[in-house]
Amino acid sequence: MGNNNTINRPTTTIVNREESDNIDKMSEVEAEETKIITAVIVGAGNRGQMYAEFSKIHPKKFKVVAVADPKKFARTYIQKRYKLTDETVFEDFNDILKLEKLADCVVIATPDALHKEPAVGFANAGYHILLEKPMAVTEEDCREIVAACKKNNTILSVGHVLRYYPPLQKLKELINSGIIGDVVNIHLHEPVGFYHFAHSYVRGNWKNEDESTFVLMAKCCHDIDLLLWWFEGQRCTKVSSFGSLFQFRKEKKPEGASSRCMDCIVEKECPYSAKKMYLDPIKEGCVGWSSVICDEPSIESVTDALRNGPYGRCVYESDNDVCDNQVVNFEFENGQTATFSMVAFTEKLCERQVKVFGTMGELTFNGSGPISRFDFNSKEIFIHKPVCSFSGFGGHGGADYHLINSFVHALAENDPSKVVTGADISLRSHLLVFRAEQARVEGRVVVPEDVLV
Predict the structure, then answer these.
(1) What phi, psi does 318 have (nearest 5°)?
(2) Which of 34, 227, 40, 222 has the alpha carbon at shortest distance from 135?
(3) How far is residue 95's CA from residue 48's CA, in Å, rounded to a whole number?
């Protein structure tokens, strides 16, 4: 006999709505009527090079006039690409600060632990600042940067690029509209990607807290910032967190594995093989992340880097200590809650997954796809498709472009409101990240009394 108690799900209708992104952009006509914003690049690695590229797209809006980087290859790249004279190329940014002001602004893309000194120095010298995230790796340094910017009326834009990502801006717009009622809970998940985590957080620059910072700050301050943005106006009253370094430890090392992938007899069975990640793509003509491990990637240079450098080490023999999985729980003053989770072991690479639960409906977003809205009253599913313009610039689906465009726009019009990741907002989200990590380390619920809305 069949089960007569089966519950039938209400029939739903799917409605598609394609929308252009609503990000304010300065047209070329406006640009012709506006002064060109000049910039110094401090830190000419991947992120510094990406921001500098904005001047190639909009030469009437933005111009690179100087560079500082301790690595000759990096600063020479910027010099050649932007036709800089030898007098405007520096090994040490402090040499720029000894001179008369060279530019309107500075782009600071140095390693995370080296943000405070240039940020404070250039603020005191009268430069506006685009500062890569995280702002800094200690609470004291973050506060000092903000204080210097306020003292000098510096326009500060912190690189929380996801606030500029069109689909996430549309998500914010839908939340603010009240179309799903009052928001009760948000779940945000970041799948880091198994090879990305091995590259950056086991072998790379962010593998060790003493050398850089904890992973929640290095990788996920974006995400905590998003949650504060979506719960704008609500004070976070409690935070707890759990996480660990589960996999990449010596006791997890496969039997017979070597200390380096180039000499390992089990390398072919290891998904984290450095040969697979760096050498095999080069053999197929793809540079990929090999550009990180050596200045001029070739089969020979990559092979040498894997034999002698940190990126060729076994993932179970590195000096990494940051979490490879972590969850954070938040309670807000009106009873709403949020959860954030990060895990290394995923196929997807940083394609955030978001669920927003409201009293009248729910929103779902996965990676770069559209936003799905289910309406409790009509039982209809509405599909919102924001258009991601300039998705080929930098990364983050065009968000990198929109961040620097907004910064340049703010400087050209002397309008700090064009920047949505300014000093006070960014300080609040950083403080909440520090409190979340405090909760994990101390194994307790933390009341973030100093994190104000």
Answers:
(1) -85, 175
(2) 222
(3) 18
* Separation of alpha carbons 221 and 205, rounded Å: 17
Phi, psi of 344, rounded to the nearest 5 degrees = -75, -30
CA distance 215 to 204: 12
- For residue 263, count other CB atoms closer than 10 A to its CB: 13
156-158 and 128-131 beta bridge pairing = parallel
172: Cβ contacts below 8 Å, ≥ 6 apart: 229, 230
Instruction: Give the gyration radius of the chain's Cα atoms.
Output: 23
Per-residue pLDDT tens listing for the chain (453 residues): 444 343 344 455 566 655 544 444 444 434 445 689 999 999 999 899 999 999 999 999 999 999 999 999 999 999 999 999 999 999 999 999 999 999 999 999 999 999 999 999 999 999 999 999 999 999 999 999 999 999 999 999 999 999 999 999 999 999 999 999 999 999 999 999 999 999 999 999 999 999 999 999 999 999 999 999 999 989 999 999 999 999 999 999 999 999 999 999 999 999 999 999 999 999 988 888 888 898 888 999 999 999 999 999 999 999 999 999 999 999 999 999 999 999 999 999 989 999 999 999 999 999 877 999 999 999 999 999 887 666 566 667 788 999 999 999 999 999 999 999 999 999 999 999 999 999 999 999 999 987 654
Half-sphere exposure for 307 (CA within 13 Å, toward CB): 6
Q: Within a 13 Å sphere around the CA of 94, how many CA atoms are in the beta-carbon half? A: 5
The DSSP code for 20 is E
Quick one: DSSP state of residue 249?
S
Task: Number of helices (H) and strands (E) in the chain: give both, helices first.
Answer: 17, 15
Give the separation between CA 420 and CA 229, rounded to whole angstroms: 10
SS3 per-residue string spanning 157-200: EECCHHHHCHHHHHHHHHHHHCCCCCEEEEEEEEECCHHHHHHH
Q: Which residues of 105-140 are buried (b: 16+ CB within 10 A; e: fewer)?
A: bbbbbbebbbbbbbbbbbbebebbbbbbbbbbbebe
- CA-closest candidate to residue 162, choices 202, 190, 194, 198: 190
What pairing do the DSSP bridges indicate for beta strands 37-42 and 62-68?
Answer: parallel
Phi, psi of 298 (to 5 degrees): -150, 170
Q: How far is Cα 42 from Cα 125, in angstroms, rounded to an integer?
A: 14
Copy the structure tokens of residue 447. 């009341």
